[in-house]
Amino acid sequence: MKKKIICVLIIIVIIVGIIGVNNFCNRKITYKECKNNEVKLKYITHKFTGESEHFGFETGNVDLDKNNYEILLTNFRQTKKVKNIDDFKITIYFNDKEWSSNGWNKNKDISFRKFLKNIIVYEEDTEYIEENSPNFRRSSDAFIETSPDEFKSAIKVEVKYCYKNKCNTENMKIKFID
Asked: From first to last of its 178 residues, what are the pLDDT tens digits of the chain?
């Protein structure tokens, strides 16, 4: 009887240990290559991640070639639990100009965790050449207006979330891999 109790206790300790290690590992943000085959940059100028106190993204890629500007941010996740989130918004800025935002609230038909998992922020802008005009870009926005030399200091990612009638804003620290 004592052997069974000891065996069960050992199994419980092992399971709790595995869960603890898994939870600890899930908190750390490390760069991951993009798994999504639909959106993949052919060339990458910079690889980066972003992390704040409670959230992060593991895939940040940008191509700043003079003929092709592309950016991809994905693999967003919560790194530290915040219970009962009612509203969430992630906003990306370049040179303090808002470029993109994505939001969620508890009334949506998708869970918060699934929403984070499904976020893919992507833009491509290719330079076109016409016979009677100089090179031009088809559009202009905060990302396109950012020069390759200033990209690292220009990008800012901000998260705002509300729960229990309180709202917090966190700025992600961008870590460049290259």
From this structure: 777 777 777 777 777 766 655 554 556 888 787 776 567 788 899 999 999 999 999 999 999 887 788 999 999 999 999 989 999 999 999 999 999 999 999 888 888 989 998 888 888 876 544 444 445 444 578 898 888 999 999 999 999 999 988 999 999 999 999 6
CA distance 27 to 89: 20
Helix, strand, or coil here: 34? coil
> What stretch of H or E contains 113?
helix 112-118
Q: Each residue of 9-46: b (16+ CB within 10 Å) or e? A: eeeeeeeeeeeeeeeeeeeebebeebeeeeeebeebbb
Give the global pTM: 0.75
Q: Distance of CA 84 to CAs 67, 80, 87, 105, Å?
A: 45, 13, 9, 11
How far is residue 146's CA from residue 83's CA, in Å, rounded to a whole number? 37
* Residue 84 DSSP label: S
